[in-house]
Amino acid sequence: MEEKKSKVILHGMWASTYSKRVEIALKLKGISYEYVEEDLQNKTESLIQLNPVLKKIPLLVHDGKPVADTQVILDYIDETWKNSSRFYPEDPYERAQVRFWVIYINQQVFEVMGRVMLQEGEAQANSVEEARERFKVLEEGLKKQFPNKTIRGNDDVGLLDIIIIASFGVHKALHEAIGVEIIDPVNTPTLYNWIEQLQELTVIKEVEVPHDRLVTFLQKCRQEHLQHTANA
Amino acid sequence: MAEKEEVKLLGIWASPFSRRIEMALKLKGIPYDYVEEILEHKSPLLLALNPIHKKVPVLVHNGKTILESQVILEYIDETWKQSPILPQDPYERSKARFLAKLVDEQIITAGFVSMARADEKGREALAEQTRELIMNLEKELVGKDFFGGKSVGFLDLVAGSMIPFCLERGWEGIGLKVITEEKFPEYSRWVKNLEKVEAVKDCIPPREKHVEHMNYMGERIRSA
Questions:
Q1: How far is Cα B106 from Cα B48, in angstroms, rounded to an integer?
Q2: pLDDT band for position B217 (cuts 50, 70, 90)
Q3: Closest residue in B to A75 (Cα–Cα)
């Protein structure tokens, strides 16, 4: 079925896991897009005009119409390009489960990992403990809800897989940058295995970020933040 | 489908999150059992169904548990197809979802923090922040009876339960004027429209009691 040629632009940032989610989604659906790398200290006029409320990346522009907020973008992509592999299961209850875990990752896991990244000393140690607890909840949830998870190809990749690989695929770089290991085969075997399987896919390898570059970037962010807080 | 549908909602009378679910169920004409939870003494049922967050609302449908108010709304819309609450068009859906997130993330935070501040200057600054955010909703209402167009939709339920029927009660209690008809004519018109819809009207928390409750909550935060 021939689809009308549409113009898709993604405003993103190479180190952003949110931006990565959208890139993976677009690639999975086979959508050609123009990529605009944003310098977050010096955002383009387009970004500010098209996303005036949040002024954030990622921002998708489809035939001139802006769509903002990562999750909103992912749903938009899934609902607009319906001919290729769908991001959600058919059953409403199973869809609700996927949505729940996505929210859990975004609100609970990301929140604590942000603190782990930007704190030091005792504060960081406390956050690390909290992070371990939240990852444990995620681990149990995934094991229970999605037993025998197998990823053979792109058709097995849905929304939760996209979020997991984009967010945690870089766990080795994260560990190197902060010196703490949270995702590993002993404590989070389900999640670890899930990530390993996804990393085998070509579509995922295509968006891989150079490890050393990311480690340097994360360390820089951390140092800058700690300096800033110390000077405040 | 031979079996009787079992729909149960665990909620709290003052929670905008559980009120919006009641509105959705009523809009679609879905019969349900309501279980009132008490914030300070969560029932064993709630703790069993939502051990992770221990929060309301919780929807139980034929033994299946659904959590998170916006997830519940989407679930309801996908399960019971009459009186759809999300728009059909993907772009319109994306706008509704984006603004719903703005309500539940930024507007609620600015709104509650404005009530938590003890100093007048702080309150006014946050009130101004909240106004700027609500202006995005104001613009979206131009030429429409509701966000959903001619009828109540997803964003009407999310924003309605949160702003006029929750935050405004809080502001009333502390005498903070955040939204005026002068600055927000579309919003004001929209609220009047909402109040005429039975499914919404029947699910608004009683005003006096609610203002008192919000005052009490505000005082607890301010003195903490």
A1: 30
A2: confident
A3: B94
Q: Which of the residues in chain A have pLDDT under 70?
A: 1-4
Strand partners, A9: A34, A61
At a CB cut-off of 8 Å and minimum separation 6, what does B60 contact?
B6, B7, B8, B9, B10, B49, B66
Q: Which of A24, A1, A30, A43 is CA-nearest to residue A166? A: A24
B39 and B64 Cβ atoms separated by less than 8 Å: no
Mean of per-residue pLDDT scores for chain B: 92
Beta strands at B7-11 and A59-62: parallel, antiparallel or unpaired: unpaired
Could you tell me the pLDDT band of residue B2, with boundaries at 50, 70 and 90?
very low
Least confident of A71-75, A123-127, B32-36, B47-51: B47-51
Would an 8 Å CB–CB cutoff place A137 in contact with chain B?
A: yes
pLDDT value of position B55: 86
Q: How far is CA B54 from the centre of its chain?
A: 18
Which of B98, B107, B158 would best serve as a mutation to test chain A binding (most A beta carbons within 10 A)?
B98
Specify the pLDDT at position B219.
Answer: 83
Contact assignment for A80 to B136 by CB distance below 8 Å: no
**Integer Cα distance of A17 and A23 in angstroms:** 10
The answer, yes or no, to whether residue B188 has pLDDT greater than 90, is yes
The A residues from 59 to 118 touching B (CB cutoff 8 Å) are 62, 65, 67-69, 71-73, 75-76, 79-80, 92-93, 95-96, 99-100, 103-104
CA distance A97 to A106: 14
Give the DSSP letter string of B60-127. Answer: EETTEEEESHHHHHHHHHHH--SS--S-SSHHHHHHHHHHHHIIIIIIHHHHHHHHH--SHHHHHHHH
d(CA A220, CA B31) in angstroms, rounded, equals 56
Interface test mutation site (partner B, options A74, A78, A82, A97, max chain B beta carbons within 10 A): A97
The three-class DSSP label of residue A12 is strand
Mark residue B63 as left, alpha or beta (left: phi above 0; alpha: psi -120 to 50; beta: remaining): left
Q: What is the pLDDT of residue A84?
A: 78
pTM of this structure: 0.94
- In this structure, the number of other CB atoms found within 10 A of the CB of residue A191 comes to 22
What is the structure's pLDDT at A4?
60
HSE, side-chain direction, 13 A CA sphere, residue A186: 2
Contacts of A68 in chain B (CB under 8 A): 98
pLDDT above 90 coverage of chain B, percent? 79
Quote the pLDDT of residue A231. Answer: 81
